[in-house]
Structures are given as C-alpha cells and as structure tokens.
Amino acid sequence: MRNKRRGTPGFTIIELMMVVFIIGVLCALGAPAFSRYVKRSRTAEASGHLQKMWSGSVAYFSSDHADSRGVTMVKQFPATTDCPTDPVRELPCCQGTGQKCPGSPAAYSQEPWVSLQFNIPDPHLFRANYCAQPDALQGFSAEANADLDCDTIQSRFIRRGQAVGMDIQSAPIPIILNETE
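Now predict its structure.
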C-alpha cells in the first residue's frame, strides 16, 4: 500500500524571503555600530602616545640639566624652537599599508623627541605633536592627531601639563575633538 504524505518537507519561498529580509535588517542596523566600535578601538593608540609624551616630559622635568658651561639649569620641559600647529611631518598615512603611517619616522630622531625618549616604532594611525616653552611655568602641550577614515577630518587628542612648584599637573583625561570623526 502506498503511503501518501501530505505536503513536502522544506521551506516555502515566502519563509526564505522573510529570513533574508530579517538578516538584511540586522546587518543594516549593525554595520554602523560596528564601524563606530572599530574607530573607537583605534583611538586607544592616541592615549598611548599621550601617555608616552607625558612620561617623557615628567622624566625630563625631574632630571637635572646643565648648560655648556656646566651650570645647572632651572627645571624645564624639553623646549621646542617653534610650536608647530601640524603634527610631525610624515608620509600621508592614508596612502600607506593598512592606511597607516610607517613606523620609526626620521622626524622622531630630532628634538624634542630625543629628550622625551619618544618614538613610534610600529605602523601607526596617530601622529604626535609636542610643544613646550623654555620657561617651566608655560608648561607643555602633547597632541595625537589622525585621519581615521581618510576624509581629511582630523581626530585630535590633547593633553596639557604645567609645572606647579615641583609637581606637574594636568587634567586626568585628555581633551578629545572628533574622537571617531
């Protein structure tokens, strides 16, 4: 005797279309959030650069320095002859591998970077900028700047420090402009 089955196993075209539609909606909602998450994770590099410049500034300020005649100089930060408004000149990062700047740029072999003991040996997104005046009361400004998505809008992280007596004070968190631009 034949056994007749009512209906066939499987999914209808309507059911498959509904599943594809739901997956499409979830992707459309999740893609921007994922993109922001990736950009925000890249900003951790900026905090690391600021911390290195901060530590180098504190170490330099705490050390004794002498002029060419051997006379001990007053406490100060590594002085810069001019305070550039642009970060260290490097090759355009957006044109590099993985849209990153190559590591160990030659600019970091000059002052004030040598005094700060600062270098970025690995490929990086954020470029550093440092400005300090010879007078310790002026303090210093450390910046990390990047164009995270190569649209010419810069993400900027700024940390300033100032000597108050023998202490160096700063805000606990950096100033952040266009964090994920």
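The first strand starts at residue 127 and ends at 132.
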